[in-house]
Amino acid sequence: MAAPKKKQVVDRNYILSEFMTYVLEHERYPVSVYKFCKVAKLKEEEFYKFFGNLESIRKSIWSTFFEATVEAMKKNKEYASFSSREKMLTLFYSLFETMTLNRSYILFVLKYHDQPMKNLKQLKGLRLHIKDFAADLIEEDNDEKKYKLAKNPVPIFSEGAWLQFLFLLNFWVGDESSSFEKTDIAIEKSVNTIFDLFDNTPLTNVLDFGKFLWNEKVMWN
Q1: Residue 90 and residue 87: Cα distance in Å, rounded?
Q2: Contact 181, 97 (CB under 8 A)
Q3: CB-based contacts of 148: which residues, under 8 Å, 6+ apart?
């Protein structure tokens, strides 16, 4: 006699997974919670335990990418001893690795609307996560600096980290290199350039990064 199947546990991650599957298989967003739940074999009350509407799911997916990335990073025993530069590099490398596992979904939703700004609305939660992460890094560095004039402006640095992510996201979307190795190069060059600027080091890396962008003809519009 076959053992009875275990009942599927409905939690936040399960609903997110079902939503992504729905989008990819139907090539469109669900038009209502009712229709989504019907296809996903969910009760609406189960859905509303975790999400208020479908828009909150779209935003939560991106936040989940970030949260899963940071959780994995912090399991590395050496992470705590990393410099701010190394932590930012690790974040971007790891985040894009996580996103690559979900590349089909990401490519679809980033081009869903004809107006780019509509597609970027779903990144609102992710923007706050990245800015907070960068702000914490620069505040830690500032605490180690004796003189106020040597301290770096937290708002500028955190906003710069977000704009940096947008550039890298656009680059990754169009990257056709094997294993997205050009994206890895872009991450290394862009993060090192930002930190070099804040450390007031020579601008050779800035020029190097500029040449790289020119050669790849990549711009964020």
Answers
A1: 5
A2: no
A3: none
The token duo for 188 is 């290394």
- Kindly report the number of other CB atoms within 10 A of residue 53's CB atom: 11
Task: With both helix axes pointing from N to C terminus, report the angle between 181-198 and 204-216 in degrees, rounded to the nearest 10.
Answer: 150
| pLDDT tens-digit map of 72-130 | 999 999 999 999 999 999 999 999 999 999 999 999 999 999 888 899 999 999 999 99
Q: Which helix (H) or strand (E) holds 84?
A: helix 84-100
Range name among 36-40, 120-124, 139-143, 193-197 with the lowest pLDDT average? 139-143
Q: Report the predicted TM-score, pTM, of the whole model to 2 decimal places.
A: 0.84
Cβ proximity of 22 and 28 under 8 Å: no
Instruction: Measure the CA–CA gap between 96 and 172, rounded to whole angstroms.
Output: 8
Cβ–Cβ < 8 Å for 50, 19: no
User: Do residues 44 and 37 lie in contact, with contact meaning Cβ atoms separated by under 8 Å?
Assistant: yes
The continuous run of DSSP H or E covering 157 comes out as helix 154-174
Q: What pLDDT, on the 0 to 100 scale, is given for residue 201? A: 46
Beta carbons of 183 and 175 less than 8 angstroms apart: yes
Sole residue written with tokens 């939660």? 125
**Paired tokens of 41:** 């074999």
Could you give the angle at the alpha carbon of 145 between the alpha carbons of 140 and 151, nearest 5°? 80
How far is the CA of 195 from the CAs of 80, 96, 163, 169, in angstroms? Answer: 19, 20, 14, 19
